[in-house]
Amino acid sequence: MEIPKTLDQLNEQLDGWSDMLKDPLWYQQAMPILLDWWENFPKDETRELLKDRIYQYFADKLEKGEIVLGRKGPNFDQERKPVDTIIIHHSSRKPGVSWQELSAIGFLRQYVHDYYLYDDVFDQDTKDQPIWSGHFRDGIQVFYAYHWLVRMNGESVRLLEDHYLGWHAGNRDVNRRSIAIVLDGDFQNSEPSHLSLEGVARLMREQYPHIKTAKILGHLEVSKTECPGRLFLPVWKNKLLSKFFEPQ
Questions:
Q1: In whole angstroms, what is the distance from residue 218 CA to residue 14 CA?
Q2: Confidence of residue 246 (pLDDT cuts 50, 70, 90)
Q3: Residue 12 CB neighbours (<10 A)
Q4: CA–CA–CA angle 156, 91, 190 (5° rounding)
Q5: What are the tens digits of pLDDT across the range 113-168?
Q6: Is 21 buried (19+), middle (13-18) or exposed (0-12) by CB count in 10 A?
Q7: Which of 44, 122, 149, 198 is the most buried (most CB within 10 A)?
Q8: Per-residue CA distances from 86 to 56, 70, 169, 187, 213 (Å)
Q9: CB 229 within 8 A of CB 191
Q10: Do the bridges between strand 178-183 and strand 148-150 make them parallel or antiparallel, or are there none, so unpaired?
């Protein structure tokens, strides 16, 4: 299939996917195409526009119930352990990311990816099975990697319930026992606002006062990544921890 180079070309190809998404195993057809696109999209600003469009396409389809998903499946949460770790992430998106888009991103990056590549996920048989998370929000199946989203103004938004296992760290043992907090925004080369850091610290104090400081970590401290940004360790991790201990 031809690699789309523009939004118009991408939209034209995605318009033909509706029937495919009605097949319970649609991902076996779609994932090779998506992987090929990801590998060969233009290496310029168009690349991010095309990726954003794919995320939005799947966010819309998931919200409208136009993708066939599993009605039952493995209990991935049976591996959940008592929480003793917090992992800090950034969304690497423009501020204001919707919960639908975050679900679509987790859907594609974790669930669709793993169901396509592996016959078992977390030692559970997923071969030739429709995609299933076992996680729900208002009766809708969701695919978040994170438990909380903290907005630019410091507001915290619940995503996954704490007893749900989030696929966020790239480390199975860490996933089992951690809470994932994602900051709204792209902090690859910058630091979050004062309000954002206060919001994260307040959330940790109120919800997880038992977590030891040594167990409040950035994603890059447990996996090979730059998330939540290059300035996390040298600049703003200590700022966050100092706010965690500020007297109230």
A1: 36
A2: low
A3: 12
A4: 100
A5: 999 999 988 888 999 999 999 999 988 999 999 999 999 999 999 999 999 999 99
A6: middle
A7: 149
A8: 28, 30, 10, 18, 9
A9: yes
A10: parallel
Mean pLDDT across the chain = 94
The answer to whether residue 244 scores a pLDDT higher than 90 is: no
Measure the CA–CA gap between 62 and 60, rounded to whole angstroms: 6
The pLDDT of residue 248 is above 70 = no
For the segment(s) 80-244, the CATH number from 2.30.30.40, 3.40.80.10, 3.40.50.620, 3.90.226.10 is: 3.40.80.10
Instruction: Give percent of the chain with pLDDT exceeding 70.
Output: 98
- Boundaries of every domain in the chain: 7-64, 80-244
pLDDT of 6: 92
- Whole-number Å distance between alpha carbons of 171 and 187: 22
Backbone angles phi, psi at 90, to 5 degrees: -125, 155
Q: CB-side exposure of 26: number of CA atoms within 13 Å?
A: 19
Quickly list H helices, 125-232: 172-177, 194-207
Residue 1 scores a pLDDT above 80: no
pTM over 0.85: yes
Say which residues have a Cβ less than 8 Å from residue 233's Cβ, sequence separation at least 6. 218, 220, 221
